[in-house]
Amino acid sequence: MKKKFAFLFVGLFFLSACSAGPSGGSAGAAGDNSNAGNQQEGDTIKVGLNLELSGAVAGYGAQEEEGAELAVEKINEDGGILGKDVELVTKDNKSDNNEAATTAANLTTNDNIVAMIGPATSGAVKAAIPNVTKAQVPMVTPSGTDDSITVSNDQVQEYIFRSCFQDSFQGVILAKYATDNLEAEKTAILGDNSSDYATGLTKAFTDEYDGDIVAQENFTKGDKDFQAALTKLKETDFDVLYVPGYYEEAGLIIKQAREMGIEQPIIGADGFGDEKMIELAGEENVSNVFYTGHFSALAPANDTVEPFIDDFKGKYDKEPSTFNALSYDAMLMIKAAIENEDSADSTDIAKGLAELQDFVGVTGNISVDQDHNPEKPLVVVGFTDGEESSAETIEP
C-alpha cells in the first residue's frame, strides 16, 4: 500500500497546539491543597475499573477488564509498585452514562482508589469527568476517543487522560486512507447520529476528505434494519462506504450491504474492533473492510508486543484484541506515573501522567502531549473473509 501520510501530521500538531489552555474542572491544581485527592493507604495501591461489563457495549468493557487484569497480574508478579501490590476495584457501569457517573463517585469516594481506568465509551467518560475531577483522581480511558474528553472549552481537563488516540486523528487518517490507498474520489456515509463518537468521526472525515461526499444517511444506535438507507446508497455512484459507529450496528450494516450486492470497500474507526462485529456480519461478508486500530499482531509496535501476546494467550487462551491492549497500556501508564513521581497519591499520579514521555506500550511508544493525548502510531487493519489480512502502521 502507498504511504502518503507524513505531511498531515503537521496539521495535527497545530490542531493539538491551538486547543491547549489552562486546566479545567472544579477542583484545584494538584499543588493547591496538600490534602486534595486520594492518598495511598494500607498495603495495596487501589485502582478502579469503571467499565461497561453489561449492556449494549459490554464487549468493549469485558475486553478492557481482561487487559487491566493481566497488567496487574504481571505487575504484582514483578514485585508490585513501590513495593506494594496493586488491587483492582471493579464496577460495572452497565453501558449507561448516568451509571458511569455514579460509579466514578463510588470508586473515588467509597473505595478510595488513587486512579481509575475506563469507561470505554466517550459518552460514559464525559459523564464521569465531573466526579473524578471533584475527587482529584486521575482517570485513563482506554478507548474514549471524543476530542472534547481531554480538552473542553479550550481548557485541558486536569485529571483526564487516555491511552487511545482521539477521533480527529482517526477521521483525518481515514479520509487520507480513502483517497491515497483506496483511490476513492466519491464517498458515501452511513453514520450513527446518536453518539458523540460517531458524529465527531463524521466531522473529522468530511473536513479532511479531498473527494466528494455524494450521499449521507444516518441511523440511531440500536437500529437493526438498514435496508432503506442502503438501498438509497446503492443507487448512488460511490467508491467507498464510510460507517462511523460501533460494532453492533457496523456488523449488521456490513452483512446487509454485502447481501444487497454492495461490494465497495467499507471503512470505519476503532468502534469496529470487536470480534462480535464479524459474528454479526458473517465471516464471508467481511472482506474489503478496513478500520483504524490501536494494535495489531500483524504490525507489532515494539519488542513488548510478542511477550504480551504470549502472556495474554496463556491466561485467556485467545489472541489479544485492540481493547485488551489499550487497557493493558492504561494500567502500565499509571504504574509508570507512580514510579516517576515516587508516590501513589492521586494528585501526584495525575502529574506523572501529564509528564509521561517515551513510555513503551504494546500499542506503541507513547508520549503524553499538552492536551493529555498520547502521541503514538495508528494501525489501519484490513480484513479478508473475517480475518485480519493487512495492517499498516502510520507514525505520528
Automatic annotation (TrEMBL):
The keyword Signal applies. Keywords: Amino-acid transport, Signal, Transport. Residues 1-19 form the signal peptide. GO terms for biological process: amino acid transport. Coiled coil: none annotated. Residues 44-384 form the Leucine-binding protein domain. It comes from the Bacteria. PANTHER family: LEUCINE-SPECIFIC-BINDING PROTEIN, PERIPLASMIC BINDING PROTEIN OF ABC TRANSPORTER FOR NATURAL AMINO ACIDS. Belongs to the leucine-binding protein family. This is Branched-chain amino acid ABC transporter substrate-binding protein. It comes from Tetragenococcus koreensis. The gene is livK.
